[in-house]
Structure formats: C-alpha cells, structure tokens
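seq as requested:
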Amino acid sequence: MEFALSEDQRLLQDSISGFLKDAAPLDVIRKIADGDAEAAAALDAGIAEMGIAGLHVPEAVGGSGLGLLEACLVQEALGYAVAPSGFMAATVAAHLFAQAGSEYAGGIATGDMVFGLALTELVSRRDGAGVMSTGDLLSGRSLLAMVPEGATHVLTADGDGVFHVVDDWSAAPMRTIDRTRMFQELVFDRVESRSEVMGDDGVLAAARLLVAADTLGAAQAMLDKAVAYAKERKQFGRVIGSFQAVKHMCAEMAAKLEPARALVWHAAYAMDTGDPEAFAMANLAKAHLAEVGTFVAKISTEVHGGMGFTDLVGLHYWFKRIGVNRQLFGSPEQARKTAAELQGFVEA
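struct tokens:
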C-alpha cells in the first residue's frame, strides 16, 4: 500500500505553487505588506481565477467536491509563498455548510458569495469583546476576524458556540506582527443572523488543521531558504554549509518538519474519511505544527546570521506569519487540551 499523494493531488499543489511563484514573489509580498491595494487586488484576482474557492464545496452544488486533504495542500502552498488569500475562510465555511446542507455552499463555488471568518468566540474572549445573540439579532465585537476584500458574508460564532451568517457589519483593521494578512475587528449592532447552525467541533478542527498546513508551508520555505543560504554564504574561504554545526542545524529542522507533514496529511485524511479520531488528530496537528514552526523559524534565522533580520532577505515575513498562526484559532496549549478532551483523557 502506498501512503503518498496521488498524481492528481501532486498536480493540484504543483499548479498552485507554480502560479504563486510567478504571481507572489518577495517583491509583491513586500508591497502587499506595505499596504499596496493594487498589488493585493491583482494577486486576489489571480488566485480567484484558479477556482480554488469552491474546492471543498460538494459537486452537487457546483464545487470541485475535494476533501480537506486537497485543501491543506493548497493552504500549504499559500503558506510557502506567505500569500494573503480568502481560501481558508471559504474552505471552513464550505465545510460547515456541506455538513449542514446549506445553500450558501453553492454561492461560494460560483464566487457570488465571499466569506470572512470570525471564530474568536470559540477559543477565547477579551474583556470588552464577545458576540451575543438575542433571537435572530447579534451584538458585540469579534476580534482577529479574517475578512477578505470584497467579502459579502461573514461566518461568526456567538458565546454559546452557535454559528451565524451575517451580511452586515462594521470593521476596523487590527494590526498584528504579520503584515501578509489583514485582520479586523468586527462590530455587530443588532445585526440580523441570516442563518443559524448549531455548534460543530468539526468546524474548529478544520480551521485549526488549515492553520497547521499554512505553518507547514511557511516552515518549509524557511528551511529551503536556510539551506540555499548555507550553500552560498562563505566564511573562512568555505561555504558555511560545509561546517558541521550548520549541517546539524539544517538537518534538525528537516528531521522535525518531515514527520509534521505526515501528521497534517493524516489528520486531513482522517477528517475526510470520518475517522473517529479525526477531530483529535486535527487539533494535535495544530498544536504540533505551532511548536515545530516556531523551532524552524528560530533556527532558520540563526543560519542566516545577521542577514536573517534584514528586509532585504525578507525572512521576517515567514517568521511573523508562523508566530501569528501559533495563536490563531487557539494556542497550542488550547489545541492539546481540546484533543485530550476529545480522547477522554480530561473532562471537558
């Protein structure tokens, strides 16, 4: 039995990676991080033409009907390029709507509906923030929402873990260390909930799994950059990659990252096949990739020496993306606690 990607899965990831290599080089990412709206819009348009928004939408309503494994391969490619995209929000929303049998899934596939994601309520609540529902009306604030440009709807969760679809909100930008993505603070003032779906552990698991895949891609990019730099940078008349200490640093990064890739793929496959441990595996993938990604980001920067801190190399874009991913949709400690609860090791 072959435990590897199929030819179609490899072609999918290669096509996305190839497009991003041309459309999102470091110069473009730097412009987007500096607030260049034209550069961001051009990249968004190119990604939209790839048709990946409907990748996880069932074929019956116009989507590609592919699973979370394929979605993780796409998100890994996006993380590798540190490219901003609404793909994660679209995929999480499609995952919920496919399970709930909602008509919104078809809108995602056609592109008529562009979803944002505001799920902070599922993992934490800061003083003065929080979303509450009274009947069909939502009020409150949701922090660190991922709302792409041109979003028509937002999938949000209230304090009871119930999911709501809204098409009216006010927003203010929230600046984080990660400039490759825009986060927002959403304010709901007695906004009508267009759809209400009871809580589902699979939604948070899917979101955390996609974050893990994004970190996997970003960490792989940092490893590749460290290896390439070690082959070029010379000291004492030799490339630094010939020094045993640098060899060990690169080997240790690779040794930690490769099993992490298998964990992400296994968790995604488990989610797609309905494995009883799927949700636990997705949470463990999020927690483990947060730790591995942090390690790779640190060691890769050390391999680069002083150059690792310069904007010329741009390593900080990947470093900071991994840092924000560590806390996005819950810290590694929270993800491990959820996995322990799902496996019955601790009481919920």
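DSSP finds eleven helices and ten strands in the chain.
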